[in-house]
Specification:
single chain, five-stranded mixed beta sheet, globular, 5 helices, 2 domains, 157 residues, 33% helix, alpha+beta, DNA polymerase, domain 1, Ubiquitin-like (UB roll)
């Protein structure tokens, strides 16, 4: 089977890679580009651990093929912090202890960023609805919701 050449923008940088036609975007990110922040929790789009943003849209990277990334803009958890400075969402997750084992945290952060990019002033119901596709076994979701609410307020100034 021949590999496909893919050109995409990942975390603001033009990127090229070769991937198998059946390889998921998640596997391409992790195995080819060494962007290991996105996790495979379920492989069926049910847990949100592999969440990335593709052209402004929240996507489960385990359900998208790497070849489908051609020409698209992709944001992963690795793109949140800039020049070593944590994104306000990351900082608020720390301040609110909104993580425990950390396996699901990248997916929650990416999903929360996608929400705040779309709506900088969400209410609690919208935050809970938006994050409903992300599962966590360790926390009660309240700390996560408070962290997103606090980050939204900070980002609005």
């Amino acid at each position: 089977m021949s590999k496909h050449h893919v050109t995409a923008t990942i975390n603001g940088e033009a990127t090229e890679f070769l991937c198998e036609p059946q390889q998921t975007l998640l596997d391409a990110l992790r195995d080819i580009m060494n962007l290991t922040g996105s996790k495979e929790g379920c492989g069926s789009g049910d847990c949100g651990a592999c969440s990335v943003i593709v052209d402004g849209r929240l996507v489960c990277s385990c359900l998208m093929l790497g070849v489908e990334a051609e020409g698209h803009k992709i944001e992963t958890i690795e793109g949140l912090a800039v020049n070593g400075k944590l994104h306000p969402l990351q900082q608020k997750f720390l301040e609110h202890a909104a993580l425990q084992c950390g396996f699901c945290t990248p997916g929650f952060l990416v999903a929360a960023k996608a929400l705040l990019d779309r709506n900088p002033n969400p209410d609690e119901t919208e935050i809970r609805y938006w994050l409903a596709g992300n599962l966590c076994r360790c926390t009660g979701y309240d700390k996560i919701v408070r962290a997103v609410t606090d980050a939204a307020a900070e980002l609005r100034g």
